Structure formats: structure tokens, C-alpha cells
Automatic annotation (TrEMBL):
Protein's name according to its UniProt entry: DsbA family protein
Record lineage: Bacteria, Bacillati, Actinomycetota, Actinomycetes, Kitasatosporales
Length: 216
């Protein structure tokens, strides 16, 4: 992945997601709002909650472990297969289609929802068959590792990376927010996030979540 500025002159923002995560979905919708109010361009990449947690499954609650083992592999495998076979440009639209069906429409990460999402963006529905295949797991793990290497193992999805003042990327987990801010609120959150992320030695700011994801 190149960290260079796109030909259109916009600032590249690399965004790693797992389509299963509702909180990453909220952040991604905010990021699309940021594209409207700041001179940035999002580049989408997959990461995997299944890969992230595969060495600590025994430590996880039963329900979350079951989700990782039985639901988490399929969607990311389909997205990485689509990327490998049809190019980087399909990743963002496919994520939007998957997330809309999984989260906004409440369909969940079913095979039917995945196939319908592929159809929504004009991709072959038989790509859904890759949900059960490890054909591109090497590429999936490489994409995941590229994102996680920028922030460390003790995070989840999403991971965002932007060019820093010295040209090196500054990366962070989150922000976790609901509902997704729009307009000037989206811009304010973006500016503030970049401000704190740019401070050397800054690691965390957090408060207890009192509201679940609001999909609108």
C-alpha cells in the first residue's frame, strides 16, 4: 500500500474494518461524512476480528467466541476475494452494501445478506462462496497485519492511518461514536481526533458507553 498523496491531491486516509463490527460501521459512516467536509480520500482495507482474537478464544465470553468462530470469517473472506479478483475500488462500495444489510437493515451476516450485497454493487454473487474458503487468507492476514502493526495488538476495528507532519503515518483505533456525526460535527470530530493523535506519547481517551450503535 502506498502512503503517497492520491493524484487528486487529497489527503489519503487508510481505514481498516471488519464488516461484522457495528462500531466500525458507525465510524466508517462518519468517515464518509468527513470526505464531504475535508479534503481527504478514504482507502478501505480489511482487518479481521477472527484473526485478532484467534490466540485468546479461551479467554472470551462464550457468545463472543461463538460469533468469531461461526460468523466472523465469512464476510472478510468475501471482501478480500472481491478485492483480489476485482480490484481495490470495489472494497468501499461492497463494505457499504454489507454494512447496510448487516446493521441498518438488521439482516445480520447471513449468506443471503452477503450474496444480496454483492448483487447490490454489481459483483458476481458466487463470490459469496469464498466465505467458506481459505483461498485468500494469506492476503487477508497481510491486510489485517498491516493495519494492526500501526497501532498495536490491544485494539479492535476500525484502525485509521493518516500522514503525519513528518510524512510518516499516524494511526489510531476508533473513534467510537454513535450516531455518526454529520456536517460540521463530523468535521469537528475529525479535526479534534487528528489533533490528539498527532501528540507524541498520547495513547488513550475513553468513557463508558451508555448508548448502543444508532443506525440512521
Amino acid at each position: 500500500m502506498s502512503e503517497n498523496t492520491p493524484a487528486n491531491g487529497k489527503t489519503p486516509v487508510d481505514f481498516w474494518f471488519d464488516p461484522l463490527c457495528p462500531w466500525a460501521w458507525m465510524t466508517s459512516r462518519w468517515m464518509l461524512e468527513v470526505e464531504k467536509v475535508r479534503d481527504v480520500e478514504v482507502r478501505w482495507h480489511v482487518m479481521s476480528l477472527a484473526v485478532l482474537n484467534e490466540d485468546k478464544l479461551d479467554e472470551l465470553p462464550d457468545e463472543y467466541r461463538d460469533m468469531l468462530e461461526n460468523q466472523a470469517w465469512g464476510p472478510v473472506r468475501v471482501v478480500i476475494a472481491a478485492q483480489q479478483l476485482h480490484g481495490d475500488d470495489v472494497v468501499g462500495p461492497l463494505y457499504t452494501a454489507l454494512g447496510t444489510r448487516f446493521h441498518n437493515n438488521g439482516e445480520g451476516p447471513t449468506r443471503e445478506a452477503v450474496a444480496a450485497a454483492l448483487k447490490d454493487v454489481g459483483l458476481p454473487e458466487d463470490l459469496a462462496e469464498y466465505a467458506d474458503k481459505d483461498t485468500y487468507d494469506t492476503e487477508l492476514r497481510a491486510s489485517h497485519q498491516e493495519g494492526i502493526d500501526k497501532v498495536g495488538q490491544e485494539v479492535g476495528t476500525p484502525v485509521i492511518a493518516v500522514p503525519g507532519a513528518d510524512g510518516e503515518q499516524v494511526a489510531f483505533f476508533g473513534p467510537v461514536v454513535t450516531p455518526a456525526p454529520k456536517g460540521e460535527e463530523a468535521a469537528k470530530l475529525w479535526d479534534g481526533t487528528l489533533l490528539v493523535a498527532s501528540i507524541p506519547g498520547f495513547y488513550e481517551i475513553k468513557r463508558t458507553r451508555t448508548q448502543g450503535p444508532v443506525f440512521d
